[in-house]
Design goal:
Shape of chain A: globular
Radius of gyration of chain A: 21 Å
CATH topology of the largest domain in chain A: Tetracycline Repressor, domain 2
CATH class of the largest domain in chain A: Mainly Alpha
CATH architecture of the largest domain in chain A: Orthogonal Bundle
Oligomer: homodimer
Number of domains of chain A: 2
Order of helices and strands of chain A: HHHHHHHHHHHHH
Chain lengths: 221, 221
DNA sequence: GACCAAATGAACTAGATGGTACAATTAACA
DNA sequence: TGTTAATTGTACCATCTAGTTCATTTGGTC
């Protein structure tokens, strides 16, 4: 990936003579930082630990990101921008209403299941009352469009007599998200309390089908 | 509540001559600790801060709970035991299937909405991979019976031709919990990203109705 | 009222942690 | 080739933090 990350592996120390690679260093830091924040949260993550696992030094973290919170915010912003990219790639408008909703629910479920890192970071951010989302210009400029996409497909469905009227698009989104989010976010406690492993392929597949089915039943006229 | 907590308010220091009150001190510590862990998580909470807000001293925290994790575990155990108590108070078996499910979904939704502290602690514990739930004997002995209650009501519903067969009780539980948990756990980020305040009474009421309705539609034959 | 275990107070500490000072090296460009 | 801003390395520090030491007081028991 990044030049810096692939350069000196064994020692962890750069040679006396090195080559500049701002972007590489930045990426390398972000990658490691994400893992740390995902695993330990904002308060639990250690700057020294991040620095140690990096191909560069603690000095550079502060050079590029200012402080620990700045680094955390950068990680958060990157993650949300990534989602935004996936979201844009979905073309619900070209599908019939029921298929559009099925696709959206399935995609949302899969994205959460395949990206527990995302789920964990959102949990961490919520523990902190989304204070960093609130103060990030990059995220404010993002304009997540999930709700608009849902509204469009839903209204087509209502017009076609497939969906019952009177449902708020935000409620559709919340239902989809809740079902996708919960069994990733709470996988550990569910396993402890009920002895049920949500990570197992069969459990996951059944849950996926249930999520889609639940959504469609909620929408149907 | 506790004698210790109500004794010397202004100064925070006990008089030269004090009276022993083990249970009061214990309760006082647990109450303050819960607030701190709920607000800042396990890593973010500060033992000194907890001690300062207590009517007693840091010394007593370590005397009664061993270490920070011991205190956290005690808070967690108390919370789960409280849930268990509420759970037992529900008498689904004496209600018709549909009413039983409606009651359970409504109760679960309300409990989460009214106890964001509970939701936040569960989030914190999941960030830590439920490691403390796993090592707690008190919680292992709890035998949460939600699943059994659901199975009983569900099977009666199927027998009466009201519910469709083939649904796993755990899936019913997961659907109920997900819908109740998500809009409390993710309230902050939802508000930032979508500008939608889940705490507002109307939003909450609509969401409550949607949760119950969604569950019943999922179950109906 | 002497004795002892339980309960409590006050001060202290070793190590961790976020952050910095200072200096050196590199790369772009006149 | 000399100048300069952007990058990077090394060593360091002030403060915070979990946990402890040592001594004292209380309340029950014989």
């Amino acid at each position: 990936m990044s030049k810096a990350a692939s350069a000196p592996k064994g020692t962890g120390r750069k040679p006396a003579s090195w080559t500049q690679d701002p972007e590489g260093v930045r990426r390398n830091i972000l990658t490691v930082a994400k893992e740390e924040f995902v695993e330990n949260g904002l308060s639990g993550a250690r700057v020294d630990e991040i620095a140690a696992r990096t191909a560069t030094s603690k000095r550079m973290i502060y050079y590029y990101f200012g402080d620990k919170e700045g680094l955390y915010r950068a990680v958060l912003e990157e993650m949300y921008e990534r989602i935004r990219g996936f979201e844009r790639s979905l073309d619900l408008a070209s599908l019939p209403p029921v298929e559009a909703m099925t696709l959206l629910a399935g995609f949302t479920f899969d994205y959460h299941a395949e990206n527990p890192d995302f789920v964990r970071l959102v949990m961490v951010e919520n523990i902190h009352h989304a204070r960093h989302l609130a103060t990030s210009d990059r995220i404010a400029a993002l304009n997540l469009s999930a709700i608009d996409m849902i509204r469009e497909a839903y209204e087509r469905g209502v017009a076609a007599g497939l969906f019952r009227p009177g449902i708020e698009p935000i409620d559709i989104h919340l239902t989809i998200s809740a079902l996708a989010f919960y069994n990733v976010s709470n996988r550990a406690s569910i396993r402890q309390v009920f002895g049920h492993d949500m990570g197992a392929p069969e459990a996951l597949a059944r849950r996926r089908a249930a999520a889609i089915d639940t959504l469609l039943r909620m929408l149907r006229a």
